[in-house]
Amino acid sequence: MTNSLVISDSSSLIIVTKCGLLNYLCSRFKVEIPQAVFDETVTEGKKLQKVDALLIEGALEEGKLEVKAITAAKAKETRFIEKLGLGEGEKEAIILYLQRKAALLLVDDCHGIKAAKLLGINWATVPAIIVGFARDGAISRQEAMECLRIAQEKGRYRVDFILDAFRELEKTGGQ
């Protein structure tokens, strides 16, 4: 594991888990989520009997990722973020990213991406993470193709994110 801190929003964490990449992510980075992301992924997911909720909960119990509380944000920071039309998970993930001075924000919501760009946050989508894992040899090109298929099917990605990821994956060559 590196010391690089990654904060994830709910849907990114769910898609990473559905792709079978949660352990890869947690082995390469220190991964933290805010309480709202826990509530959306684990608490609500278990009510809906989602397998990914149990996998995320298991990773938390094993210490592979952590739930971190956000501290009272500066009024100016909070007012700005409140105006961006974000869900609670994205809002808390952005605040946690800023407060913890994280290296990367995993986000896939269009409003969350827009907010990250406005705030100068280093962000990535799950398709970009999949390509990065393939480039690094953590997963095979074939596994990456399957993960991108799952991300396309289960996620809410714009088609250009998926197509760009497939193009980047083609450049990696290999198996």
UniProtKB/TrEMBL annotation:
Q: Which InterPro entries match?
A: PIN-like_prokaryotic (IPR021799)
What's the domain of life for this entry? Archaea
Q: What is this protein called?
A: DUF3368 domain-containing protein
Q: Which organism is it from?
A: Candidatus Iainarchaeum sp
